[in-house]
Specification:
This protein has about 450 residues and is α+β, with helices and mostly antiparallel strands. It has three domains: about 200 residues, no CATH class; about 80 residues, Pdz3 Domain, CATH 2.30.42.10; about 80 residues, Pdz3 Domain, CATH 2.30.42. About 45% of the residues lie in helices and about 25% in strands. The chain contains 13 helices and 18 strands. A five-stranded antiparallel β-sheet has the order 5-4-6-7-8, covered by helices on one side. Strands 11-10-12-13 form a four-stranded antiparallel β-sheet. Helix 1 packs antiparallel against helix 3, helix 3 crosses helix 8 and helix 10 runs parallel beside helix 13. The protein is elongated. The two termini are about 25 Å apart. The C terminus is likely disordered.
Length: about 450
Amino acid sequence: MASLFTGIYIAVAVLVLFGASIFVHEYGHYWMARRRGLKIEGFSLGFGPKIFSFMKDGVEWSVRWIPAGGFVKLPQMITSEAIEGKGSGDIPPAPPLSRILVAAAGPAMNVAFAFLIASVIWMIGLPVLVNPAIIGRVDPQSSEGKLGVQAGDRIVAVNGHPVKSWQDINLEVITALTNVVPVTFQRAGREFTVALPTQRSETLGLKWLDLEPQEKPVIGLLQSGMPAAAAGLEVGDKVLSFDGVHVLNQEHLTELIGKGGGRPCEVIIERNGAKRELSLTPVYDAKEKRHRIGIGFAGGHYEVQRPGPTPVAQVRDVLRLMGKTFTALFHSKETGVSAKDMSGPVGILGKLAVDVKTDYRLALNFMVMLNINLALLNLLPLPVLDGGHILMALYEIVTRRRVGVRFQEYATTAFAVLLISFMLYVTFYDVRRAPLFGHLLRQKSVVETPAVVPAQP
């Protein structure tokens, strides 16, 4: 019964949080359209067929089945029939200034909402995963060992950017445009920088440093009859690497197991201070819909930072991450990052669900990122997006000529189809990653106190 209530709580919380981000964006358009005297025909959360709707003040308010966004139906803005349906008759376009203000109001509301949430996080604190960027064992004969890297060194910067955790290190290495990156270490209060070669993982398709973290996932549970137990793994073993990739944390190991499903994989563990190499083959669990080896984890926890980061610092971190992501996508050949690594509605809802399950403050932190992303992506100068409306209105102001209505309609509809196609593309990969979200949702929350986590990858 408790698990049922937990599931209901998570589902409701996710829908409320995601819906709130969409609602504030669309309400920005609605509020400004009212102020500018534009005709408003509809206000919708979601796309596609209606779940329910009602009329108020001549506006149809509706909730629809596809939770991928929303829209305010404004016929004077030249909207897309592919998304919003056919309008009611021919209405002259609104003046350019009104179209600019209405289009900009949606993203502005998301930014304001992000700062509001960030202010709450600043006051109540933010859980931070304990995963210090400290080096574990280093082979003196390895490239890193010959360059002077030693066990116990702390990584403080990669590519000139400060890092605090292995997640930060991974981000900097993955998005680096070269195969050799400068890494700054700290040892006994002294800092030194070494140019380290990266390795590209065939399993993940991304780059990584050939360095072991000091803290590794520890096996807390073994399931009999599963590959881990059959291969000889024991409770208390520390997992160093899987399928040739150094393991950074529990979630990373789960991802690697999923990638290695159906074929023999080498796993390197540490037991009583000594390394051991074992081989096992992850098996597919039809019920769980993912590959597993039959282990649970011990250790791994969050500590709450009080007060949390300032609102400005939180938004700055989001902007920095977005910049790195777009740079990595643009240089996909060098980084290995592609569109399939992005998340659509399914991935967003899955991440929100995991964060809600772990700690509501993590979900709020994700909401800051989500709202800043919604604001900036909607300002891209493409038809169907807010930035496209602004661009066409500016063109009209500068040239004193209107863009042809038919051209606007065709361009908007064409880009709407492209946008929907792209969303379907990333959703396909989101669905493939869904078992990972399911696995994380089944884990026990471990905020502030270490615990055995009864997950079974």
